[in-house]
Design a protein that fits this description.
Helix content is about 20%, strand content about 35%. By secondary structure, it is α+β, with helices and mostly antiparallel strands. It is globular, with a radius of gyration of 27 Å.
Length: about 180
């Protein structure tokens, strides 16, 4: 007894639909290979990655730093990331945030004016190079970690615009709108 032909809503039999799907997947696979090869040829080679990274050829990973979180929140929090750009001679006055904040000097040299205890400057290896309430300088490639409720500010004493990447661990309820 012959099997009935099952047709889709588009009028295709199941056999035709599977055949077309297979052809489409094969074409996509070939196209992906061609596109992948073209993308690899157009991508600049990564700086000689070490053999133990496990990253594919053409992918480079550059660690900016490792900063220990000294005051991890015990409640849920939102990680907030932002960029601050400061013209020469500008500053953000001292203020205290009720949560952990960190800034990474992306470009330029910055100064933290005298503030509170609980501020740490880290180099790219994650080593504390300065800490405390006094004035601290942190150039390009350095982090400033500020504990909750610590007075801290920043200024650009340089002659060029500078930029910082900031991260804050903000309690989730403070970021939720009702």
């Amino acid at each position: 007894m012959p099997r009935p032909t099952v047709r889709s809503a588009f009028g295709l039999s199941r056999r035709a639909a599977l055949g077309r799907t297979g052809a489409a997947l094969a074409a996509l696979g070939l196209g992906a290979r061609v596109g992948h090869t073209a993308a690899q040829e157009a991508t600049p080679a990564a700086a000689s990655p070490s053999a133990d990274t496990g990253l594919p050829v053409g992918v480079a990973l550059e660690s900016l730093s490792a900063v220990p979180i000294r005051d991890l929140p015990t409640e849920p929090f939102t990680l907030v990331m932002y960029r601050i750009t400061m013209e020469p001679g500008t500053s953000l006055p001292n203020a205290a945030l009720p949560y952990v904040s960190m800034t990474y000097t992306e470009k330029g040299d910055f100064v933290c004016p005298p503030g509170g205890e609980g501020r740490y400057i880290y180099d790219a290896k994650g080593t504390v190079v300065d800490s405390g309430a006094g004035e601290m300088t942190y150039p390009e490639g350095m982090w400033c970690y500020t504990a909750p409720d610590t007075m801290d500010g920043i200024r650009n004493d340089g002659t060029e615009p500078g930029s910082l990447l900031g991260i804050e661990l903000v309690p989730t309820e403070a970021t939720t709108t009702t």
